[in-house]
Write a structure and sequence with these properties.
Helix content is about 45%, strand content about 10%. It is of the alpha/beta class and about 425 residues long. Bound molecules: D-xylulose and cobalt (II) ion (CO).
Length: about 425
């Protein structure tokens, strides 16, 4: 019997529905700016938080005690996959994502882990047959096992670099076999705790070389998806090399990879870096590296990566506004890198967490589309920068300091401060959310 027993597939019931288990705003076929809502949002369920996470925290162990968490052999991994696909049937979302370690039991050797992994990949492929759900991205967990405690590609021990390279090769092969649309690298332990034991220049060179090998391998096997790096400023390492969008872009440029690799941006990671999510999205878009998003929220009081399901429509609306402005997510999507609270024990909580997140994103997308269609923010921007349309301003960019000096000395340049109209613009956004 399904873990989700009698929970029926969710349907769109509209904003006035009183049901706990329905969509009030997520209506996959509804057209938004000429495109189906499902094709804008491209939702994915994250295997790790939704099925692998057991509800532990630093003060206590597992609370969920899901049936498949009672053992760590292939049978339990298959039971976990069965529950995952049952949830996908209920939610009807188009994608899912995994780390190798989420879906397969760890073996005693690399070869045993790989054979477990391949068995589960085939098991999932059989379950995907006849279903619409697809793989948004695969990734390797190179941060949980103790062998990775000093990093994966940045490890001082070359044997860990080798293990990591072999792991990523296997995960890229599996991602391609499952028809994945992207491959993600989040460097959980690619950073350091203390400079006293760390050669950070060397470690970054190792990481740059590793990423180049990933790109070379993508081309070698003909993987058509996008390679994505996920920025995060700290946790688990005190200092992470992939701090934020700006840092990652500098890193990609340094190793000549800015045309090959894009970024997977996570709301909670943006907050930890002291940015808003929309800042990270707009910056990635301006730099041409916007790839995909992990949608969650942090708790603003705890200052930690709490990975909660999104429930703040105004924040989400601004995120999708800049995504729409960027032309959409391309091969990317909206992955719920979000987990339940530790007390949310029941199957119904897992369904409701996702359904609520999908509704919040749908509301945000609709508000964002209305703002794009209304054009008020764009008009305000054009007006603010209108001075740059004049021939004098354009000529200045082709000139030099001397010619600009001469023009200022000749008179006629007399800057007058103008209001930035922040409150008016914030009031404008509030009309839509
Ligand atoms: C960790 C995190 C990861 C990545 C995938 O904070 O976001 O789950 O998304 O490794
Ligand atoms: Co993430």
């Amino acid at each position: 019997m399904s873990y989700f027993a009698d929970i029926a597939p969710l349907t769109y019931e509209g904003p006035d529905s009183g049901s706990d288990l329905c969509y009030r705003h997520y209506n996959p076929d509804e057209m938004v700016m000429g495109k189906r809502m499902e094709d804008h949002l491209r939702f994915a369920v994250a295997w790790w938080h939704s099925f692998a996470w057991e509800g532990g925290d630093p003060f206590g162990g597992p609370t969920f005690l899901r049936p498949w968490q009672a053992g760590s052999d292939l049978d339990h991994a298959m039971a976990k996959a069965d529950a995952a696909f049952d949830l996908f049937d209920i939610l009807g979302q188009p994608y899912f994502c995994w780390h190798d370690a989420d879906i397969r039991p760890e073996g005693a050797t690399f070869a045993e882990s790989l054979s477990n992994f391949e068995a589960i990949v085939d098991y999932c492929l059989a379950k995907m047959d006849g279903r619409k759900v697809q793989l948004l991205w695969g990734t390797a967990n190179m941060f949980s096992h103790r062998r990775f405690m000093s990093g994966a590609s940045t490890n001082p021990d070359p044997d860990v670099f080798a293990w990591s390279a072999a792991t990523v090769k296997a995960c890229m092969d599996a991602t391609m076999k499952m028809g994945g649309q992207n491959y993600v690298l989040w460097g959980g332990r690619e950073g350091y705790e203390t400079l006293l034991n760390t050669d950070l220049g060397r470690e970054m060179d190792q990481m740059g070389r590793f990423l180049s090998m990933v790109v070379d391998y993508k081309h070698k096997i003909g993987f058509k998806g996008t390679i994505l790096v996920e920025p995060k400023p700290q946790e688990p390492s005190k200092h992470q090399y992939d701090y934020d969008v700006a840092t990652c872009y500098g890193f990609l440029q340094r190793y000549g990879l800015e045309g090959e690799v894009k970024l997977n941006l996570e709301q909670g990671h943006a907050i930890l870096a002291g940015h808003s999510f929309e800042h990270e999205i707009a910056l990635a878009s301006a730099l041409g590296v916007l790839g995909s998003i992990d949608m969650n929220r942090n708790d603003y009081q705890s200052g930690w990566d709490t990975d909660q399901f999104p429930n703040n429509v105004p924040e989400v609306a601004l995120a999708y506004y800049y995504i729409l402005k960027a032309g959409g997510l391309g091969t990317g999507g909206t992955n719920f890198d979000a987990k339940l609270r530790r007390q949310s024990l029941d199957p119904v909580d897992l369904v409701a967490g996702h359904a609520g997140g999908m509704d919040v994103c749908a509301r945000g997308l609709k508000a964002a589309a209305a703002m794009v269609e209304d054009g008020g923010l764009e008009a305000a921007l054009s007006d603010r920068y209108a001075g740059w349309q004049t021939p004098e301003a354009q000529a200045m960019l082709d000139g030099d300091l001397g010619s600009i000096f001469d023009r200022v000395m000749a008179g006629g340049v007399d800057p007058q401060p103008r209001s930035g109209r922040q409150e008016i613009l914030e009031n404008y956004v509030n009309r839509f959310v």
